[in-house]
Specification:
It contains ten helices and no strands. The chain has 209 residues and is mainly alpha-helical. Helix 1 crosses helix 4, helix 7 packs antiparallel against helix 8 and helix 8 packs antiparallel against helix 10. The longest helix is centred in the middle third of the chain and has 28 residues. It is elongated, with a radius of gyration of 20 Å. The protein starts with a helix and ends in a 23-residue tail after the last helix.
């Protein structure tokens, strides 16, 4: 890693920490420079504005989440139901930890909010699409259902439900909503050869014991 890369990585790490701890709107470039004991001139050499830094932080965070989900998908030590449960728990957990920042972006930084939505749609198409394919291959999801339709349904639900304002309206957390949302979709496409439905208090997608 070059000196420039190292400085950029340090800035991004501090920005992510600050945004998560205090919210996007309350953090200034001065705050980040002070925390890093770095001159504002140096900071602005790497990121020309707070918006550029915010976008870079969003891209970095979503990339890490994507890698985490990819590793879950490829973990063949778990059956499909266990991977689905971990997949859902991971996504909901990250959303929950970033809830305050997301409210901030939706309210005060619409350009960044729309950028996040765009990147989130791409991630859902890629990661959930791979997950559906794995479920069909494992015989857990119906092979006669068009995967693109399922992905489009999930994209629509994510866009319409996983939003700070909607969560407040529904009086639910992301951790509560995400598994229920996926359960509604997966209960309609999962192959169940005469087996009983899973218990109501059990995460959807897990196998009955």
């Amino acid at each position: 890693m070059t000196e420039v890369d190292d400085a950029r990585a340090r800035i991004l790490e501090k920005a992510e920490q600050s945004f998560l701890a205090h919210g996007y709107s309350r953090v200034t470039m001065d705050d980040i420079a002070t925390e890093l004991r770095m001159s504002k001139k140096t900071l602005y050499r790497h990121f020309s504005s707070k918006e550029e830094l915010g976008e870079a932080a969003i891209v970095a965070i979503l990339a890490r989440i994507g890698e985490e989900l990819r590793a879950l998908l490829e973990d063949e030590r778990r059956d499909f139901g266990e991977r689905l449960e971990a997949f859902t728990r991971t996504l909901a957990g990250h959303y929950g930890r970033g809830a305050a920042v997301l409210r901030d972006l939706q309210r005060d930084a619409p350009a960044l909010w729309h950028k996040l939505l765009e990147l989130r749609r791409q991630a859902v198409q890629e990661r959930f699409g791979a997950f559906v394919a794995a479920g069909v291959k494992a015989g857990v999801l119906r092979s006669d259902v068009e995967p693109r339709l399922v992905i489009r349904m999930v994209l629509t639900l994510v866009d319409q439900l996983l939003r700070p304002d909607v969560l407040v309206e529904l009086e639910m957390t992301a951790e509560q909503l995400y598994p229920r949302m996926l359960g509604v979709v997966l209960d309609g496409i999962r192959a169940r050869p005469g087996g009983p439905p899973p218990p109501a208090n059990k995460p959807r997608g897990t196998r009955s014991r």
